[in-house]
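In this supplementary section we document a worked example of the pipeline. Step one takes a protein sequence of length 157 as its only input; no multiple sequence alignment statistics are reported here. Step two produces a three-dimensional model, which step three serialises into structure tokens for compact storage. The input and output of this example are shown verbatim.
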Amino acid sequence: MRRKQAEPAEFEGQADPALQGPLQQYVGYALRRAQLAVFQDVIATLADVDLRPAQFSVLILVDANPGIVQSHASASLGIQKANFVPLLTELERRGLIDRVAVDGRTNGLFLTRKGRATLKRANALHTVHHARVDAIIGTENREQLIEICLKLAELAR
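The serialised model returned by step three reads:
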């Protein structure tokens, strides 16, 4: 039997109960809450070009590294191969990337003209997202936050 998913609680005039106890002191909890908020804003921002964050990341990576092979791209982005192939298939179906055979088993990735135009528009939209983030935390804090997050990512190595 499937459980019914709980509706988000509303706390009019009250503090969020999750922040009343030890959770507010947990780095992972704070990062996850921030990540969800940032992703919601990115998703809404990129809706005009019909890109999800992972798709946007692929376009950025391929633009910066034309001909990158699929396995290197998926590893660089931390996306499992089983999830990466359908992602590429969708981008290719939309005419945003081309997969070009490098050898019998390896494909290099390239942006199409439409992919470059879409990425240009997405980057302009993403600049608006960055401005909203900077308005909350400040440019200097954003740079420090990125540095700290990259250090924390070393835990996965």
